[in-house]
């Protein structure tokens, strides 16, 4: 993979990485607030339940909301770890974000395709909504992958710097 030199043609990959981590924290906090403030009758959170005799009282405990909140708290933690890694120039502290980022990108792709197909199969009333979800989700995925590439490029730069020593010159290119 070719390394990016800059983020958005003007900022360094270091700055882009800090912006990406900050955006991750802000969006996670907004999502947590939205999940718990929005009336649960207005928005339905679906989950797969495999137990045959699942207690209805247990279902009322908002299990999908709790799971989503826990996941978002871990996202905030990993984004904070990314900020510390950039400040301290430690590649191994960036690694959790890099790995989580690619896993989330794969999950996002599957989710967008599944949701769009579900709406397409629901009938003619949902074709426009399905198309909007598909196009919007794929555009969001492209932006997400670009930001991931910025962070990954900075990770590689820091890792290479650690391997050759912080103050030594760049290796001679043949």
UniProtKB/TrEMBL annotation:
Pfam families xrefs: DUF4728 (PF15860)
Keyword Metal-binding tagged: no
The protein's name in its UniProt record: Lysosomal-associated transmembrane protein 4B
Keywords in alphabetical order: Membrane, Transmembrane, Transmembrane helix
Transmembrane segments: 16-38, 66-86, 98-121, 127-156
Species of origin: Parnassius mnemosyne (clouded apollo)
Record InterPro entries: DUF4728, MARVEL_domain_protein_3
């Amino acid at each position: 993979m070719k390394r990016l030199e800059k983020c958005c043609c003007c900022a360094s990959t270091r700055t882009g990485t800090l912006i990406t981590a900050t955006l991750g924290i802000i969006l996670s906090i907004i999502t947590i607030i939205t999940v718990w403030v929005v009336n649960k009758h207005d928005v339905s959170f679906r989950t797969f339940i495999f137990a045959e005799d699942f207690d209805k009282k247990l279902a009322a405990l908002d299990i999908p909301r709790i799971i989503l909140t826990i996941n978002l708290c871990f996202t905030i933690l990993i984004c904070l770890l990314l900020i510390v890694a950039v400040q301290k120039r430690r590649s191994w502290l960036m690694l959790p974000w890099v790995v989580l980022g690619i896993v989330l990108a794969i999950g996002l792709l599957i989710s967008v395709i599944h949701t769009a197909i579900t709406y397409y199969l629901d009938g003619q009333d949902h074709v426009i909504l399905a198309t909007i979800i598909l196009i919007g989700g794929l555009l969001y995925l492209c932006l997400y992958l670009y930001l991931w590439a910025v962070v990954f490029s900075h990770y590689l730069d820091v890792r290479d710097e650690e391997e050759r020593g912080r103050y030594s010159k760049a290796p001679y290119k043949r």
